[in-house]
Every structure is written in C-alpha cells, then in structure tokens.
C-alpha cells in the first residue's frame, strides 16, 4: 500500500472524507393530508332552502356539486339584467377643476386629455377621462360631505369639521 508523501494531496483526501462523513441524508417524507370530515352538521347551514336539500350521507363537496342554485333561487333572481352599472360615475370636488381645465383645453378629445400630464395630474386613462368628463358635463357632482359618508376617503385628504379643518392633514 502506497501513501503519497506530498502534504497537499494528503489534506485534500482528508477534507473530502470529512465532507462525506458529515453529509446529511436527504429524505422526502410525504406530507400528511388534511382529512375531510365525512359528515357535516346540517344545523350550521343558515339558508333554509339549502338545509332542506342537504343529504347527510354525502360529503360537503358532493352536496355542493349536486345543488342547482338556479333552481333553488329562481324566484329571487332578477327577471331582466340591468343595462346600467350599479354605481354611476360621479365627480368629486377635487376632480371637478381638473375636468373643467381638460374640457377647456381639449374639448372631446379624450386621447389628448390622457396624454396631457400637466392638467391630468391624477393620470387618468382615456376611458377614465371620458367617464369623468361626461359625468361632469351631466352635472353629476359629489360634495365632500357625500364623499365622507360614502367612505371613499376624501376626508383623509382634507378635514371638514371642527378644529382639524384649520390644521393640515398631519395634525399640526
């Protein structure tokens, strides 16, 4: 048996053996799956129509796949689908002067309004410009009080009531 006398070869061999000895064995264990409850307590279902149709011999998923919502709630569905959106666009007190300036400069050209970065400070798209300008022309304005009541947050930009009205938004 021949051992090399060169120290550099000897240290390299020892190092590799040490690495092999300290190497950790990687084992992939299967994750435990969450077991679905076979039966569901029917009394937890709030809706009486769904509670009537619920079969306790099936799982929750099987029951939900078997239910036909259109048949269950046919009397509650609307007869006709509305054409207009539920929330019409309105212009608040901050947006009204911007709309006024955009109309004065560009008229009905919404693409030019979109690209005018000096007047269009809120970076509206062409479609947003069109909606805001049409709402402004139709007189659909929203006061600051209505904005606060609706919860859209104009009250964070400018306080309206009490001593905070005179202070800035940082409270000093």
From TrEMBL:
One GO cellular component term noted in the UniProt record for this chain: nucleolus
A Pfam family hit: Nop16
InterPro entries linked: Ribosome_biogenesis_Nop16
Domain of life, per lineage: Eukaryota
Cellular location(s): Nucleus, Nucleolus
Principal cellular location given in the protein's record: nucleus
Name this polypeptide is given: Nucleolar protein 16
Organism listed in the record: Effrenium voratum
């Amino acid at each position: 048996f021949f051992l090399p006398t060169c120290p550099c070869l000897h240290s390299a061999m020892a190092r590799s053996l040490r690495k092999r000895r300290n190497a950790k064995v990687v084992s992939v264990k299967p994750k435990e799956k969450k077991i679905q409850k076979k039966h569901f307590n029917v009394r937890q279902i709030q809706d009486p129509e769904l509670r009537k149709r619920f079969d306790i011999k099936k799982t929750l998923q099987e029951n939900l796949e078997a239910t036909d919502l259109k048949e269950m709630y046919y009397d509650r569905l609307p007869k006709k689908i509305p054409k207009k959106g539920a929330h019409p666009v309105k212009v608040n007190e901050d947006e009204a002067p911007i709309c006024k300036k955009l109309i004065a400069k560009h008229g009905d050209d919404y693409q030019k309004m979109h690209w005018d970065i000096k007047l269009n400070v809120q970076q509206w798209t062409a479609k947003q410009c069109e909606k805001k300008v049409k709402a402004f022309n139709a007189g659909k304005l929203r006061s600051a009080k209505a904005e606060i009541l609706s919860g859209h947050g104009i009250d964070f930009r400018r306080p309206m009531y009490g001593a905070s009205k005179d202070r800035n938004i940082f409270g000093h």
